[in-house]
Amino acid sequence: MKVYRNAKGLYGIDYTDETGKRRRVIVATNESAAKAELARRTSAFYKAKNDPRLQQESQLFKDMAPLFIKNHINLRPSKQTYLAMFEKIVKYFGNYRLKDVTPLQVQTFYYEKAQLTSYSNANRYFGIISKFFNCLSDWDQYSGPNPCRKVKKQPEEPFQPHPISEQEIQQLLPFISNEVRPCVAIGFYTGLRRQELLGLRWENIDFTRKTIYIPKTKTEQPRTLGLTTDIERILQGLNPQPSGLVFSVTEQQLKYQLNKASAKSGLGHIRPHDMRHSFSVNFLNRGGDLEHLQRLLGHSKITTTQRYLRFKTGEIASKMTVMDGMIPLDIVQGNP
Fold first, then answer.
1. Which has the closest alpha carbon to 259: 165, 167, 159, 180?
2. pTM for the full predicted model
3. Computed over its alpha carbons, how large is the radius of gyration of the chain?
4. Nearest Cα to 267, choosing from 333, 175, 194?
5. What is the pLDDT of residues 5-36, one digit of tens each?
6. For the domain with range 59-153, which CATH number is right: 3.90.550.10, 1.10.150.130, 1.10.730.10, 2.60.40.3600?
7. How would you list the strands of the sheet with 211-214, edge to edge?
8. For residues 61 and 98, is the Cβ–Cβ distance under 8 A?
9. Mind listing the pLDDT tens digit for each residue in 252-270?
10. By the 8 A CB rule, do 189 and 226 touch?
């Protein structure tokens, strides 16, 4: 069952009627009207066949949420943030029937999130809602149009990381508790994502080969980091075990300690993800190259990593020195 457009620009529908016969008919001059007619005739077909999909389409948004969580969210390599965002979506749309969720409602939700946070964040919420309806459609649980198709997204704000310098890191760490400080230090040394850092396991650290293996990442690609002398000294001080979590630190503890320490040190608000930004900038400023940084961060695209180049202090100025001497100063000053 689908909508198609003929050579004259008219829209038709390809569907199965109540008797089970395949039909192809022109029904409208625009796609939206054709989709509405397809939904009506599809509903009539399901009703005639007593198809359970008709009942499922009338179910509430929240009734289909467990199916989406089980068959989509739980299969993602990194699901905590995604799940938390989806739960907020369910809270907003939960009592609406699936077929009653309109583009206007999604657009309103989108702008509300943008005002509270940012367009970047609102775009992520939008993507989850769209994926929800697409999945239900793919699973034959929903036959109506995706309400996100007519929603207008806004460009995301320019990338604005908040890295802190090596000196500021040294200023921050004394205000972190003894229990959490090694975890924060490793975060600044490795650039691991928050969940990767808190989920770091002893069995993935090879002290012989000097490697740290990250098996589960946002991009679904495992990667290996180097076990440097400084990192090894920190880890050895934690009494290494054959297996288990390296840090007994929760996400809430990490956030609390960073908030407390950043306030006491006068550095302003520092988030867990700022450790990753700081690693990236400090790695480049210490002579690291972009290609290796991409691999260390686990970025699938080099363009994502290139955003840190503007924080590479000193390099642009030093490269410009090749122009020195091109014009004698006497000529510029008009001296004979």
1. 180
2. 0.56
3. 27
4. 175
5. 888 889 888 877 766 778 888 888 888 888 88
6. 1.10.150.130
7. 205-206, 211-214, 223-226
8. yes
9. 999 999 999 999 999 888 9
10. no
